[in-house]
């Protein structure tokens, strides 16, 4: 049986999958928990499979639920795009959709958006915050026009990007610190949305060491404050750290770096979206101009 593509059922399923909790998902969506459960159960009946396994205090995806999650996200994005496209025509307004990675500091963003609004007063600008991986997927499927992404590694398909080395604050002096030496003390990592912690743990494992991440925080400012209280060594981007902070080297002795920049859909970009992309590229270049990556 092909499930009815009702946006409420898809939204309920994705919310519970993301939060791993019916109660938290219901609170996030601002709906009664019983209504949320009913929507998920109806979706399960239509698919003919259980999507979640629930034990005391724990909700996890079944194998069928895990397989359904990515296609459901795509379907949900498509339905949302259709709804927004029709609504925007009814309002007589073009919509430009910008994604920003969670926790990122976008250079001069208020100024850029104000400049864009002056140039395109009839264009509605929508901004979405999500992980780098989620933003890349949404640009690829067309539900976002462009996104500002901070990414560890090289998998993101950047239109325009720069590199920013990871450095250590609160550790020994010197120009560099190896991943093995970094693993000798507790570490404060930033952040969930760009995969720094996972990259550090992977590099340490390849070097035969283990990173002790005692705090996984959302902002560089908090990481630096915790390091200042001697609670651990903060690993942050060099542009946000005190001058002279040592760069982190991976198991092969290469600097570990973030890539910062813009990704954009290769087609279907409007004049307004192209202009916003230009403004954002200029703003990012002012901060990272000495470290062009492509």
UniProtKB/TrEMBL annotation:
Cite the GO molecular-function annotations of the record: DNA binding; DNA-binding transcription factor activity
Q: Which Gene3D superfamilies match?
A: 3.40.190.290, Winged helix-like DNA-binding domain superfamily/Winged helix DNA-binding domain
Task: Give the source's domain of life in one word.
Answer: Bacteria
Q: Carries keyword Lyase?
A: no
Query: What keywords is this UniProt entry annotated with?
Result: DNA-binding, Transcription, Transcription regulation
- Ranges where the HTH lysR-type domain occurs: 5-62
Per the record, its GO cellular-component terms are: protein-DNA complex
Among SUPFAM superfamilies, the record links this protein to:
Periplasmic binding protein-like II, Winged helix' DNA-binding domain
Family the entry assigns:
Belongs to the LysR transcriptional regulatory family.
PANTHER family, sorted = HTH-TYPE TRANSCRIPTIONAL REGULATOR CYNR, TRANSCRIPTIONAL DUAL REGULATOR HCAR-RELATED
Name of the protein in question: LysR family transcriptional regulator
Q: Which organism is it from?
A: Pseudoclavibacter chungangensis
């Amino acid at each position: 049986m092909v499930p009815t593509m009702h946006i409420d059922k898809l939204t309920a399923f994705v919310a519970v999958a993301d939060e791993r909790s019916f109660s938290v998902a219901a609170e996030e969506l601002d709906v009664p928990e019983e209504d949320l459960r009913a929507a998920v159960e109806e979706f399960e009946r239509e698919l003919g499979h259980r999507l979640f396994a629930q034990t005391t205090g724990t909700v996890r995806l079944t194998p069928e639920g895990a397989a359904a999650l990515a296609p459901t996200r795509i379907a949900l994005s498509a339905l949302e795009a259709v709804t927004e496209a029709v609504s925007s025509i009814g309002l007589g307004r073009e919509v430009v959709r910008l994604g920003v990675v969670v926790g990122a500091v976008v250079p001069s963003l208020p100024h850029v958006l104000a400049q864009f609004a002056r140039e395109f007063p009839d264009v509605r600008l929508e901004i979405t915050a999500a992980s780098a991986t989620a933003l890349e997927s949404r640009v690829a499927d067309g539900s976002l026009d462009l996104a500002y992404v901070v990414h560890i590694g090289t998998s993101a398909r950047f239109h325009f990007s720069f590199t920013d080395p990871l450095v250590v604050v609160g550790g020994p002096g010197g120009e560099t610190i190896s991943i093995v030496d970094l693993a000798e003390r507790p570490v404060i990592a930033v952040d969930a949305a760009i995969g720094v912690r996972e990259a550090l743990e992977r590099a340490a494992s390849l070097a035969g060491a283990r990173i002790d991440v005692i705090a996984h925080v959302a902002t560089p400012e908090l990481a630096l404050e915790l390091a200042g209280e001697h609670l651990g060594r903060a690993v942050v981007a060099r542009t946000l750290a005190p001058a002279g902070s040592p760069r982190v080297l991976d198991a092969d002795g290469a600097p570990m770096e973030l890539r910062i920049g813009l990704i954009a859909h290769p087609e279907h970009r409007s004049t307004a979206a192209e202009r916003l992309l230009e403004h954002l590229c200029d703003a990012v270049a002012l901060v990272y101009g000495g470290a062009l990556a492509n």
